[in-house]
Amino acid sequence: MLTKRIEDALNEQINAEMWSAYLYLAMSLDFDNKGLKGFANWFRVQYQEEQAHGLALIDYLSARGGRVLLKPIAEVPVTWENPRVAFNDTLTHERKVTSLIHNLYAMAEEEKDFATRQKLNTFVAEQVEEEDTVTQIIDDLNLVGDDGVGLFQLDRELGQRQYVAPQL
Ligand code: MG
Questions:
Q1: 123 C-alpha vs ligand 1 centroid, how far in Å?
Q2: pTM of the model
Q3: Smallest Cα–Cα separation from 168: which of 10, 54, 67, 43?
């Protein structure tokens, strides 16, 4: 049986994942407008991943007999100055999500909710990967600097990313 505290926290996390999806969709649209189709593709895949995170928690909460509450999704920005700003914002955001997941994990331990704790293991691992991937892209962007050819090549590379449903 889920405690009310865990149920509320899972609902908050669902909203955070859906907000993340919204954020990355906005970034995707912004890059598409700017003609950076590869960056747009990368963020569109990221959007799909975040939706999968949200859905996995929805299914889990539902399976545990909890009540899923789809709360309003807060507004997201519309535009970013350049890819570096967008990826720095992404890293900041993913670090915040990591701390939310860690807080939830600690709460599951406090409540002796071992099923929720186990469910969150894949999310903990997923966050390590997210932060690592984004950090690598920021490194690439720093290396490229203001070089147009480098940016063109990176755009081509990020255009190769394909959505693979995460195993949650
Ligand atoms: Mg996520």
A1: 8
A2: 0.96
A3: 54
